[in-house]
Write the structure tokens for this entry.
Amino acid sequence: MGLAGLRIILVEPAGPMNVGSIARVMKNFGLHHLVLVNPQCEPRSHQALQMAVHAKDILESAVSVATLPEALQGCTRAIATTARVRDWEAPLENPRTALPWLLEEPQQPAALIFGREDRGLSNEELNYAQRFIRIPTSSGYPSLNLATAVAICCYELAQSHTDKEDAEKGGQEDAEKFVPVSSTESVPLDILEEYYQQLESLLLKIGYLYPHTATSRMEKFRQLYNRAQLQTKEVAMLRGILRQVEWALENRNNCEGQ
């Protein structure tokens, strides 16, 4: 799958010329899977098609969905871009060091998420990613055009892909640098999200979380699990624990009610 299967996700893009330019630069660097979340423009308008030039096929095959979780369906890895510094434990990484991680499991879908032209991604949307990148720019004028940001990231992804292929051709010793830490299947993000919802529901039920602080506290749990890079079998084990706790609570309540 590699580069061809990697999803470039745009959340609520508002400029058709940006969308067209992004399609063009994706094709320049060998990426083909464009996903638009609740687009605020017509992605196949005359302006978009004009900017796409010979990448009109990218626009024609682009998928539009209503929400970010839908765009991430089936993905096992996701990186989000952000220009804002947040008080999070998760670091803001350089694209050159972080983006190769998306290619470490070439048979599994992965995604790179970009936010709105005017305000980027919300904290809630950032929760769906496991890692975060910030493109270093001059402090005198740090704001990047959306299409330019996508172009920089596509270039870095293409370079990483080329380096990996060269290493594999050059000998086993160099190729080992790019072998994933574990060959065990990473958990799809939609399954991980189901676990988060189950965990939040249980923690609210037992009083560990309160409704007015649940969102901020769950962000901490998400960051913790993202650092762990959970595998499918591990999430299944964690969900089994939650189900057992829920069963124990229901049975205790039934016994007390008798």
Notes: The CA atoms of residues 97 and 187 lie 22 Å apart. Strands lie at 7-11, 33-37, 63-65, 77-81, 92-93, 110-114, 131-133. The first helix runs from residue 2 to 5.
